[in-house]
Amino acid sequence: MAQKPSIPKGTRDFSPAEMAKRNYIFDTIREVFKLYGFRQIETPAMENLSTLMGKYGEEGDKLLFKILNSGDFLSKADRALVDAGDYVHLTSQICEKGLRYDLTVPFARYVVQHRNELQFPFKRFQIQPVWRADRPQKGRYREFYQCDADVVGSDSLVNEIELLQLIDEVFSRLGINITIKLNNRKVLAGIAELIGAPEKIVDITVAIDKIDKIGIDNVNAELRERGLSDEAIATLQPILQIDGTVAERIDKLASVLASSETGMLGVAELREVISGVEAIGLRATLDLDVSLARGLNYYTGTIIEVKAQDVEIGSITGGGRYDNLTGVFGLPGVSGVGISFGADRIYDVLNALDLYPDNARQSTQVMFTNFGASEAAASMKYLFEMRRAGIAAEIYPDASKMKKQMAYADALSIPYVAIVGETEMAQGKMMLKNMTTGEQSLLSVDEVIDMLK
């Protein structure tokens, strides 16, 4: 018996109706990206592992999908490693490539590789799938789309302010109520200095980034496992639980970090970004979250994370500043800041709240019936004119019973059906039926075009 077909866990098929919804998301984000002056690029699905490894931290490296070398991939492998089952060290010998984990590191590689062709500051956007060997669960997939916007070649915090406005505009158009959480990696570095563990900044950020997921007690346990003393962990607690308004929390942070030059620089950057967006006005809720770290090693300044207010799901957008990322590819001193929209989670949020406009579910506006060869030929001429006018139209391919043709149009939510029979052909017109109201009108093709446009 033939094996039942399936797809890998953590991946999904999308029907035409689902793709119509997803394209509504992509088109909305793409329009706003262009509105803010970003230009589109694409990079390969797979990159050299040397490009990807070491950029996401120890945990991120584990989640990279590695691609076995072609042919006899064990031919150049150390047999001792094979026999010992040491797959950690064996990987580099049998895999030279991997699927991209995000779009930011490939973008940094792109900037370095094409630096002589680019005009700085360079504002790019990219809408492509990424892959992570994560445990699939609600809102977390192994294959998913990211929609990124980045600016490289500028240190100005104006970029952060504009990106926050861009986020606000996208979610306002989509109708999703959001909270934008902010922090600064320099603040986290200042906290690490304050508790006497500056060398543990990565361990601290990886752990405290999980507070929302596992709770502060489990975070404290992880910090102990990572080598922090009980005294350092105790000093950290009141900092992570700073409360009050955004302005009050910034003032409390400034007081706590007064002895840390790095920490105070982070506080100053937060003040400038927050005052900048508040002066312009945001529809979103703005929040300062001192525990926000996002767990990725390449952030060096502002950190951004977006949560949907009305649906329980992970972050739906994230990003931040990464001053040093291009340096690992041989181009030091190029500052960058960017954001990434999680299209798949946004899709789930819109589905949960049923926020799609009616036209996002439709593709074809008019379907022509088919009564036979001569009627189909007349309909095809009308189809040509309507499509040339930008109206999506199709013809039922077979001369089937009218009931079957109407059922097809109804199942696909096609709003209008054009009937072209002998009577209509004689008058050079069509009978246009509104599938919602049932109303029928005898119209010329020009009249139909005018009505639908």
Question: How would you portray this structure in words?
Answer:
An eight-stranded mixed β-sheet has the order 1-5-6-11-10-9-7-8. A five-stranded mixed β-sheet has the order 13-12-14-15-16. A three-stranded antiparallel β-sheet has the order 2-4-3. It has helices at 16-35, 49-52, 57-62, 79-84, 87-94, 104-113, 158-174, 185-194, 201-208, 211-214, 216-225, 230-240, 246-256, 261-280, 343-353, 373-388, 402-411, 422-427, 445-452; strands at residues 39-40, 46-48, 66-68, 95-99, 122-131, 143-152, 178-184, 285-288, 302-308, 317-321, 336-342, 366-368, 393-395, 416-419, 430-434, 440-443. The protein contains 19 helices and 16 strands. It has three domains: 10-64 and 101-176 and 310-361, Bira Bifunctional Protein, Domain 2 (BirA Bifunctional Protein, domain 2); 183-284, no CATH class; 362-452, Anticodon-binding domain (Rossmann fold). The two termini are 53 Å apart. It is 43% helix and 18% strand. Helix 16 links the parallel strand 12 and strand 13 (393-395). The chain has 453 residues and is of the alpha+beta class.
Topology diagram in text:
Elements: H1 16-35, E1 39-40, E2 46-48, H2 49-52, H3 57-62, E3 66-68, H4 79-84, H5 87-94, E4 95-99, H6 104-113, E5 122-131, E6 143-152, H7 158-174, E7 178-184, H8 185-194, H9 201-208, H10 211-214, H11 216-225, H12 230-240, H13 246-256, H14 261-280, E8 285-288, E9 302-308, E10 317-321, E11 336-342, H15 343-353, E12 366-368, H16 373-388, E13 393-395, H17 402-411, E14 416-419, H18 422-427, E15 430-434, E16 440-443, H19 445-452
